[in-house]
Amino acid sequence: xxxxxxxxxxxxxxxxxxxxxxxxxxxxxxxxxxxxxxxxxxxxxxxxxxxxxxxxxxxxxxxxxxxxxxxxxxxxxxx
Length: 79
Hints:
mainly alpha
């Protein structure tokens, strides 16, 4: 179970880091890249810990990856 928790935490951490890193690359300035990458790392730490403490990583990602309840309510058939 601890391995799954680590993978989920890294997923929550990596999303802001990659996003801010790509924005920094798109800007094309080396200083801006490092500043945005640092901001992404800090944001990733905060977001991952918030999800872990308040919601729970398995609950959070279960809601994302799980079946959509709205499909059942709307009468749509899922495969």
